[in-house]
């Protein structure tokens, strides 16, 4: 099932991989949860935590969403049936969500970026973000805001402890 979420929130979720650079390089506008079509050795490799979302992105081709450049390492107990590590994988979303994404991507310079890959009730899901790329000055501004907020909380903690 695909629905808008902000974080995987159930207790039985096991996060396999996260894209830590995505929130730094992109402004997140919308977040979607999508299923991933996988083969058996990919699931076994994911259960061992062997995945990387660095450089991964999603595209819409002929009304279908495809996850590209997701690296899932080959299953070490696999035989000749092992999968290709960087093959394109189909994402599962409702038709109206796909049509909505097509319209938004066509309008502005937006992209689909995977934020995290996780298990929910035994099924592999990807948290997909509709995002706009940040300029260099936006990144510096965000870092400055984060540093200022960190200093404020640090100072408030000192005052509450009576150190100053």
Automatic annotation (TrEMBL):
SUPFAM superfamilies xref list: Small protein B (SmpB)
* Subcellular localization: Cytoplasm
Any Gene Ontology biological process: trans-translation
From the Swiss-Prot or TrEMBL record, what is one GO molecular function term? Answer: RNA binding
According to the UniProt record, one GO cellular component term is:
cytosol
Q: Report the sequence similarity comment from the record.
A: Belongs to the SmpB family.
Q: Identify the PANTHER family for this entry.
A: SSRA-BINDING PROTEIN, TMRNA-BINDING COMPONENT OF TRANS-TRANSLATION TAGGING COMPLEX
Which HAMAP family does this chain map to? Answer: SmpB (MF_00023)
Protein's UniProt name: SsrA-binding protein
Organism per entry: Mycolicibacterium fluoranthenivorans
